Amino acid sequence: MNAHDPRSSVIAQTSASDLIRTGKASKSAGDSLHTKSKGSSKPMGKGSYITRALVEDVRSRLNPRQRAVLADVGRLGVITGKQLQRLHYGASPAAGRLSRKQVGQLYQWRVLARLGWLSREGQPGSTGYVYCAGIVGQRLLDPNRSRYFPRWTPRPSFLRHAVAVSELYVGLREIEKKCAMELIAYDTEPICWRRYFGPGGSRSVVKPDALVVVGVDDLEYRYFVEMDCATEHSPQIIAKAKTYIRYWQSGREQAETGIFPFVLWVAPDANRAAFMIDALSTLPAEYWQLFLVTTAEEAVARIATGSIEPISNRKEVT
To answer: pLDDT over 70 for what percent of the chain?
Structure first.
């Protein structure tokens, strides 16, 4: 359970240029391979077919910053326009205008799709768009996949949860520039899921919201992240914790990586964190070493310094 050293098992970050790779795209329903008519001043219009030539035309138009934007959308799945601005453009008014212009182009070209609005408090509102990969963006990210999916209408609870997972990534990227921490990997669903054989040989899967790997000084820390939105009761929290216990007992993660990640619950506030510690500490004490609890406000700083302690009793909030 301690940090892993040496750093020989570092998970390498994938660059934006690697994610937006060339290649022959597979046919899919609604996809035409007819060449794009010449003379068009825009990559596409509403209702147009997504051809291979059109995708390559869009690829040629993307500047390095837009490629990096698409790479992070591909990594996270869902992200707000404000988060994209913080990651790739900066906080100044001029940076905001440039962000809106370039992200708007990506939306126009169907590289990105809009899922709705989110307010500053993380609720559905009218202060900023939430983005995912559009049809063209999906083909840029993975030209060999067999099917591509149009935008969907998510539930507000899904948006709040997904944006919270993205916020942790954005915060870690921001603090990485200011301290000795290195963000080695940030894998989201379903890449971070783990399949294993449970009791009696049953096929099981543990589904964290993210896997975070950071380097702090000469040590490597790994975390399975559970982003809590105060929607689950104690029995649900305990049941989820038991899935991690069974996975830990299987030994599969330790056999593959040499270390079992801490399971880090990120609560929206201190009261909820205390509630979660109270629930988790009803488990046998031998399992407490697996679990960490912190708040959304403190999560980035604590991960960056490796200063989160496992739960120890029902009243302690780390």
So the answer is: 79
Task: Evaluate whether residue 165 is within a structural domain.
Answer: yes
Give the residue-averaged pLDDT of 237-262.
96
245: exposed, middle or buried (C-beta count within 10 Å: 0-12, 13-18, 19+)? middle
pTM above 0.70, yes or no: yes
Helices (H) and strands (E) counted in the chain, each on its own, are 11, 10
Domain boundary among 154, 170, 190: 154
Query: What's the gap between Cα 300 and its chain centre?
Result: 14
- For residues 87 and 178, membership in a common domain is answered with no
The CA-CA-CA angle for residues 150, 21, 172, to 5°, reads 80
Is residue 45 within 8 A of residue 136, CB to CB? The reply is no
Structure tokens at 282: 């009803």
- Alpha-carbon gap, residue 263 to 223, rounded angstroms: 6
Contact of 103 with 84, CB cutoff 8 Å: yes
List, for residues 163-190, the tens digit of each pLDDT value.
999 999 999 999 999 998 999 999 999 9
Sheet (strand 112-117) strand order: 79-80, 129-133, 112-117
Q: Report the pLDDT value the prediction gives residue 165, as an integer from 0 to 100.
A: 98
In a domain, 267, yes or no: yes
Residue 17 lies in a domain: yes
What pLDDT score was predicted for residue 48? 54
**Does position 315 have pLDDT exceeding 50, yes or no?**
no
Instruction: Name residue 222's beta-bridge partners.
Output: 213
Residues of the domain holding 147: 9-154
Q: What are phi and psi of 292, to 5 degrees?
A: -125, 150
Which of 89, 119, 114 is CA-nearest to residue 102? Answer: 89
